Amino acid sequence: EAGVAQSPRYKIIEKRQSVAFWCNPISGHATLYWYQQILGQGPKLLIQFQNNGVVDDSQLPKDRFSAERLKGVDSTLKIQPAKLEDSAVYLCASSSTGLDEQYFGPGTRLTVT
Amino acid sequence: AQTVTQSQPEMSVQEAETVTLSCTYDTSESDYYLFWYKQPPSRQMILVIRQEAYKQQNATENRFSVNFQKAAKSFSLKISDSQLGDAAMYFCASEYGNKLVFGAGTILRVKS
Question: Is A30 helix (H, G, I), strand (E, B) or coil?
Fold first, then answer.
């Protein structure tokens, strides 16, 4: 079974630029999560999708971050414009129903200069 | 709000020895799950072990076991016969309502 795929693995941008990350969950998984992991901290949930609907985006900075999950499969997370404090690893995870184990992707390391 | 605290930023263990990583949590829920995740330098989060709060029996997975003290809200991870491949960042996490809340992590170093 293929795992959660993410791209790119690394991204370096200047502040005020925009960036997008892509996630492909495990086939058949209804629930998809995006986490932000700042260096030295544990992951923090940004947004949770159930199929193509948003379940929780309470910690998503909506003035600059947006996410979508078209057709309930792949998802993209966008930051526009980026700030220095957005430098972090962005992890995508998926689970079959949202009530079971979450499987994580390898993450995208974003550096904002 | 749920919080998870890992008070040990870094731990070291000699290969083949046993090490215990500490975790405390705060929740008002009666039904929840607790997890330990391993994150090696590759950044891939890997589930190590899971404990259901309503189960009194401590979970075990091969060399990994937990000491779950519900009243004290404590959930420590014991790694027996430590191996070089165990070196990683370990995160304790609690889950309720399908959401994971992570601690800050403990770096585990394994000495040969």
Answer: coil
